[in-house]
Design brief:
104 residues; single chain; transmembrane; membrane; transmembrane helix
């Protein structure tokens, strides 16, 4: 039996990625179900923003592997991940102000 690193238990090394992928699918389906069931509810925007942030952090940590990145790069990635949910909350609660600032 050859025990070289490339053939030593590939499923064990892929298990965290498969778990992360399953979590991403579950979070996506949860967001879809919440949107369908509670469309237009005022409390839904923060929940969706939280789901977006969780999915972004999961991708950053498991697939991009920010734990192994330089702290500056890690901070940039985390700031990028945080931008979308914060922008969603800003537009959800202050949409008319954002629209006024964006008009020419």
């Amino acid at each position: 039996m050859d025990r070289s690193p490339s053939t030593a238990h590939p499923p064990a090394t892929l298990a965290p990625l498969a778990t992360a992928w399953a979590a991403l699918v579950a979070l996506t389906l949860l967001g879809l179900a919440l949107g369908a069931a509670f469309h237009g509810a005022a409390w839904l925007q923060p929940v969706v923003a939280l789901l977006i942030w969780l999915k972004g952090m999961l991708v950053a940590r498991r697939f991009i592997e920010t734990a192994h990145a330089h702290p500056f790069i890690r901070g940039l990635v985390y700031a990028f991940v945080a931008f979308t949910p914060l922008a969603l909350l800003g537009i959800a609660f202050f949409g008319s102000e954002f629209a006024r600032w964006a008009t020419l």
